[in-house]
Specification:
about 140 residues; alpha+beta; Nuclear Transport Factor 2, Chain: A; 4-stranded antiparallel sheet
């Protein structure tokens, strides 16, 4: 009986460990989302309008029908995205309409910004469906 109990315990531990490993092997949406955001920020830095535009959701592309129009809008309204020097990620939040990703960045002047990226998945690919960019108050003294 004692050996049977140990055998059962060993099997249960093995199943639990296997399940946890399978979960760890899956890429979380947060990781994929962060990768897409970083790739678009790199495209902005390199002034690669076509690549930056490729990460935009169809709703954004409908408003800005070409990479050139899109990149001009970003330059005029979201300048810190072009000059981001330090980039950090905050929370990834799931909502009914998709995911939201907090992105902290500092621009070339040292000003801090918070970007809230709205992310949606289309045909298996994550796309950026809007960004709210707000200057952040530094608490450093």
């Amino acid at each position: 009986m004692r050996y049977g109990l140990f055998a059962l315990l060993f099997i249960l531990i093995g199943i639990t460990a296997h399940t946890d490993k399978a979960r760890a092997d899956e890429t979380s949406p947060g990781d994929e989302i962060k990768t897409i955001i970083l790739e678009q920020l790199n495209a902005f830095k390199q002034s690669d309008a076509v690549k930056a535009y490729s990460y935009a959701a169809n709703a954004i592309k409908a408003q800005f029908p070409s990479p050139q129009v899109f990149i001009q809008m970003v330059r005029s309204g979201y300048g810190p995205l072009f000059s981001a020097r330090e980039i950090g990620f905050g929370k990834t939040i799931e909502a009914d309409e998709g995911f939201y990703q907090e992105v902290w960045l500092s621009d070339r002047n040292g000003d801090s910004w918070l970007g809230i990226y709205r992310m949606n998945q289309f045909e298996g690919d994550w796309k950026i469906n809007g960004v709210l960019l707000k200057k952040s108050q530094s608490t450093a003294s």
